[in-house]
Design a protein that fits this description.
heterodimer; A: Rossmann fold; two-stranded antiparallel sheet; 5 helices; B: alpha+beta; Mth169, Chain: A; three-stranded antiparallel sheet; elongated; cytoplasm (chain A); Class_I_gatase-like (chain A); phosphoribosylformylglycinamidine synthase activity (chain A)
Chain lengths: 226, 87
């Protein structure tokens, strides 16, 4: 039996199908979850995908964070359920305070869409164990509100505890503090990042590389070996 | 009926590129002498029933947990008199 990985669809989610496809390509079974679901259908992990849930009204992720599905998700994430938040999913995780800090509009005020070079800073999370620390990867990035901010004490803590998981290389696309592209929680089971690994799992599309695939094979291996 | 106004502003240390864009446009419009602009949000809540201490406490909770993200924003809550003339 393979691992079952849930993908939540909120009103305004865009990348739920791509994420399900990436999970399937990695060899796991995607399970569609709906924002109104009150349980997680006993999935082994969850991906909160990209898009503009609730139109990004109020703040990106602020309304989605109070969806019915988030109640069991927050509870189980705190108990160790692996959760990956991509782009809007990252914003939802910060709004839910499962990850520290917050996301704000890009400092240049424009939507940005580009192939982004990243450095994997930590292979010690549920979604990065198939990388090696220091590895450089290319992942598509597309967002309006990608500027990661936190106070200096929080940033120092993240750095000291090895919880900065991805950093932008060569070019900071949104004004994120300390070039942070992705972070994890203390236990390493909750990971959020702005770039989109689900768009880089086949050589034909995206960056022409498959640098996004290890996100999904990492979690699959962890779940199957558990 | 009474109105409660919640004002939400980015914390002073957080960069506000929208406010900066507004500020930079001012000289072009002939407005000189404005050195900084910061942009915030204003929520007007029409409250059924009396705005007593219990109601204000609840609105404060609402502002803290939802209308503002206190990681990056500060907020104030104030009661506004709605006069007959203004209706």
């Amino acid at each position: 039996m393979t691992a079952r990985i849930g993908v939540v669809t909120f009103p305004g989610s865009l990348d739920d199908r791509d994420t399900q496809r990436a999970i399937r390509i990695a060899g796991a079974e995607p399970v569609a979850l709906w924002h109104k679901d009150k349980d997680l259908k006993q999935v082994d992990a969850v991906v909160l995908c990209g898009g503009f849930s609730y139109g990004d009204y109020l703040r990106a992720g602020a309304i989605a964070r109070f969806s019915p599905v988030m109640e069991p998700l927050i509870e189980q994430a705190k108990a160790g359920l692996p959760v990956l938040g991509i782009c809007n999913g990252f914003q939802i995780l910060t709004e839910a305070h499962l990850l520290p800090g917050a996301m704000l509009g890009n400092d240049h005020l424009h939507f940005i869409c580009r192939d982004q070079k990243l450095r994997v800073e930590s292979a010690n999370t549920a979604f990065t164990s198939d990388f090696v620390a220091g590895q450089e990867i290319h992942i598509p990035l597309k967002n309006m509100d990608g500027r990661y901010v936190a106070d200096a004490r929080t940033l120092d803590m993240l750095e000291a505890e090895g919880r900065v998981v991805f950093r932008y290389l060569d070019f900071n696309p949104n004004g994120s503090l300390r070039d942070i592209a992705g972070i994890t929680n203390e236990a390493g089971n909750v990971v959020g990042l702005m770039p989109h690994p689900e768009h880089a799992v086949e050589p034909l599309i995206g960056t022409g590389r498959t640098d996004g695939l290890p996100f999904f094979t990492s979690i699959l291996k962890k779940l199957v070996n558990a | 009926m009474a109105r409660v106004v919640v004002d939400v502003m980015l914390k002073p240390e957080i960069l506000d590129p929208q406010g900066q864009a507004v500020q930079r446009a001012l000289p072009r419009l002939g407005f000189d002498g404005i050195s900084d602009v910061r942009q915030g949000k204003r929520f007007e809540l029409e409250v059924d029933g009396p705005v007593d201490e219990a109601a204000l406490t609840r609105i404060h909770e609402l502002a803290e947990s939802f209308l503002a993200n206190t990681v990056i924003e500060d907020f104030t809550v104030k009661v506004e008199e709605v006069t007959e003339a203004a209706k």
